[in-house]
Amino acid sequence: MVRDRSQTPKLRSRLPPVTSTYLRGMQLSSSHPAAAVLAAVLAEQGVRHAVVSPGSRNAPLVLALHEQPEIDVRVSIDERAAAHHALGIALATWTPVPVVCTSGTAALNHGPALAEAFHARIPLLSITADRPVEVIGRGHGQSLTQAGLHALHTLHHDVLDESVMDREELTKRTRHALYKAMFGGPGQASGPVHLNVPFEEPLYELASAPVIPCDFLEQKPEMLSTPHNTEEKLFDAISRGKALVLAGPRPATAHRVAEARRQVHLPCLAERGSCVYGPLVVYGGERLLEAGKWPSSVQPEAIITLGLPPMSKAIRNALANLPHWHVGADMDGEGSGWDIWGTLQGDIPQSVLQKSTPAGAAQNWKNVRDHLDQTHQKQKPAWSDLGAWKVMTETWSGWELETRPRSIHVANSASARYAQWVDLDAAMAPHAVFYANRGVAGIDGCTSTAIGWESVQPTKKGHWLVTGDVAFHYDANALLTDPVYTNLNVIVINNGGGGIFRWLPGTQHPHLFKRHFETPPSRTVKAQAQAMEATYFLASCAKDLRLSLNQAADTDGPTVIDVQTPAERSAEVLTQYLNAFRKT
């Protein structure tokens, strides 16, 4: 029941605090009903991990979670890193993972991870403690308008106000929030939720844990059905080999790669993390474009998307104005597609991916795939960013299957793009996971997300992060956690700043390019590795990198490989590499 605040401003019934020794054997929680009910419902709904940041106003939430035996609570000092830790755990477990912070500007720091989770459709739960509603907007310290703060980048937001809500209402709203995190997105996709919880003082008292009501349960919805009669225009394009599948990353598959892999018989441009395979699957499809145009032999007339939108702007531009359908609404956790070009016709069943391609069209795509593979193999890049990537994949490919990477996380910008062009399939262990924060594609929290992922893996060895020097320094607080139990191997492609800006027109302003665009970090990778208490390796040539990879794989605890590459040469090598695909 929700009470009228104006008539009963102080109706919150605090749970009786624990004062007697005989109560010590019972299940305890915070004396604040909102915190106690929230923790109990989280445990009831299968949540097993939480990340909290230190503060005072969130003390009731911290106490309630700490006293909940089913939930493992981790501490992360930096709220921005904490939210990305929770994002990585949510990706690995596919359960809503709460990240908890105090009031004021701390709540704003959950924003980048929530935006990433919103676009990548990952069930992240931001829980922000707040001051009592009646003091908001009156200039009190550590207070701002937190209700609805993240409304534009969440599937659902609510205020759990124990001063006007009884236990039943708090239970109902918390269960509904978790339901929305798992099934509240387009086509029942998952996504982030924000709960704001105001507390009055005192904040640190314990009480016996509440018994939450058994009603108000929301069941998992039935899978949406999609039309099994594809529209005539799409069917015609498929029958003539003119339909193209565009398979982007599928975060909902990361926790179950083996069962989530999908075979695609149609021509398919795929990205790492799309979890697809088939005779006509091609990675790095932008290398096919000549002046932004497709080769005439493989020019598509209809697009079928799977997963998130493609990373390549060139591919998006080349496919503009074509009719577009999406596969995913009948796939657990994936949902409906983004209307990338404004031409989305609707959802279609995943069975469409199994349709055959006419022999002539199939041969054209096989020729394209062979051209890409053969041209790539002929390239012998000098020591550069691309050269380092080739050394990494060749080294991993030479290891025994059980020692190859079980997961590879990559930072955004250059790292995510290079990963599309090298042969990672041969370099990774069977059913390995590839992941990048490609929802919004910022460099926020790349290390923190990988650490969150690795922290809940049953096998602690074999998890790698490939990042750039700017992204590595940007997330410097990733290991300010308790506990710190990571065996993550971090490879830093250190080209002296934001190397990807050398791919862009900013180089035409040489008088300000290095300072304002490339922006070399003032701290060294070695200094940051030492601050992380990681084992440090330096690689300034191919031989060093091979040796460092082998040594890092055999080292306990976190490792950092500082791969120093020349920035200007890296840009030149990349240009030469991409031009090679456009020569007949």
What does this structure look like?
The protein has 584 residues and is an alpha/beta fold. The protein has 3 domains: 28-204, 3-Layer(aba) Sandwich (Rossmann fold), CATH 3.40.50.970; 232-368, Rossmann fold (3-Layer(aba) Sandwich), CATH 3.40.50.1220; 379-580, Thiamin diphosphate (ThDP)-binding fold, Pyr/PP domains (Rossmann fold). Helix content is 31%, strand content 17%. It is built from 18 helices and 23 strands. It has a 7-stranded mixed sheet with strand order 6-7-5-4-2-3-20, sandwiched between helices. The longest helix is centred in the middle third of the chain and has 20 residues, at 359-378. The radius of gyration is 25 Å and the shape is globular. The model is unreliable at 4-12 (pLDDT under 50).
Largest sheet: 7 strands, mixed
Range of helix content? 25-40%
The number of helical runs is: 18
**What is the averaged pLDDT score?**
91
What is the percentage of strand-forming residues? 15-25%
**How many domains comprise the coordinates?**
3
Strand order of the largest sheet: 6-7-5-4-2-3-20
CATH domain class name of the largest domain:
Alpha Beta
In the predicted model, the low-confidence regions spanning at least 5 consecutive residues are 4-12
- Under CATH, the topology of the largest domain is which? Rossmann fold
Tell me the CATH architecture of the largest domain. 3-Layer(aba) Sandwich
C-alpha termini separation: 72 Å
Which structural traits does this protein have?
7-stranded mixed beta sheet, Rossmann fold, single chain, 3 domains, 584 residues, 6-stranded parallel beta sheet, 23 strands, alpha/beta
